Amino acid sequence: MYKRRTSALFAVALFIISASSVLAVSRNVKLRIKGMTCGGCATSVEKALKATDGVEQVRVSYDRGIAIVKYDDQKVTVEQLQEVIKNTGFSCDLPSSNSSATKK
User: Phi and psi dihedrals of 101, rounded to 5?
Assistant: First the structure.
């Protein structure tokens, strides 16, 4: 009896863990960054974003003034990514063509 109950609980726990990972979606967002004056600024923003839990990939372009971020939408939100950028000393917003993050 105990062995059957333990097996059933293990199966339920495994299902819950696998179901939650299925719900997580990687998304891409393009953020417009204002105030960068050099490649070092872009590097600072990139490092801060990469250190953020849930960020999978980052490309920051000083020349174009943008950051393209691939992130796990279960771990971090676009608003949190914007806050990370603001905490590095730059202003940040979504380009008008980027009304919602895209699934990948």
Answer: -70, 150
Structure tokens at 73: 């939408």
CA–CA dist 83, 59 (Å, integer): 17
State whether residue 66 is helix, strand or coil.
Answer: strand
Question: CATH for 24-103?
Answer: 3.30.70.100
Distance CA 53, CA 7 (A): 33
Q: What is the pLDDT of residues 76-88, one digit of tens each?
A: 999 999 999 999 9
Contact 67, 31 (CB under 8 A): yes
pLDDT in tens, 27-82: 999 999 999 999 999 999 999 999 999 999 999 999 999 999 999 999 999 999 99
Which residue shows structure tokens 């063509």? Answer: 97
Q: Which residue type is seen at 79?
A: E
Q: What does the domain layout of the chain look like in residue ranges?
A: 24-103
